Amino acid sequence: FKERCKAKIDADDDRRDLDITDGKEINAEKMIRFIRMNELRLVTEYNPVTAIGLLHSSVQFHLLLITDKRSPEHPERMRRFREAAELFQGKILFVLVDNNVKGNERVVSFFKLKKSQLPALAIFHTPDEERDVLPLDEVSIEHVQDFCNVFLQRKQKKRRERGKTTFVHLSPFHS
């Protein structure tokens, strides 16, 4: 007799299943990880309601695509942005910010962007508010992936450097 556990989440017109049928034990940690990775959409559109959830998310890195939803290029940008989001699922929240929405002007100004610099990617680390911006001519999976990887590597390097303690040995003897 094998135990069977099944959990299902529907988001982004996509169904995600956690199906344990191989006899391995399911524990609370595995279930929580599955839910956290799949509770948000691949790309969440920024608005006053989602802003609260984004800021309280356990995922500390947010990548914003600040763009004009009315642009003829918007559907293709979003397709590529969603594809890139799959690569970083559970590590970075992908957020769409429509620069034509009046309330989103504050987001654009927070990243010190001008309308002439859009579309742009903006990455943000919530605990220390470190951020970086990349104005784009085109949104490609490679641009998004490179931008995210560089930022994540920089954060990882800073974390390692903070963890190192430098010892200076002062000796009363000189050779």
Automatic annotation (TrEMBL):
Entry's Gene3D superfamilies? Glutaredoxin (3.40.30.10)
Q: Which GO terms describe its cellular component?
A: endoplasmic reticulum
Q: Name one Pfam family in it.
A: Thioredoxin_6
Q: Name the GO terms of the biological process aspect.
A: protein folding; response to endoplasmic reticulum stress
- Return the InterPro entries for the record: Thioredoxin-like_sf
Q: Which family does it belong to?
A: Belongs to the protein disulfide isomerase family.
- PANTHER family attached to this UniProt entry: ENDOPLASMIC RETICULUM RESIDENT PROTEIN 27, PROTEIN DISULFIDE ISOMERASE
* Protein's name in the database: Endoplasmic reticulum protein 27
Source organism per UniProt: Apteryx owenii
Q: What is the lineage of its organism?
A: Eukaryota, Metazoa, Chordata, Craniata, Vertebrata
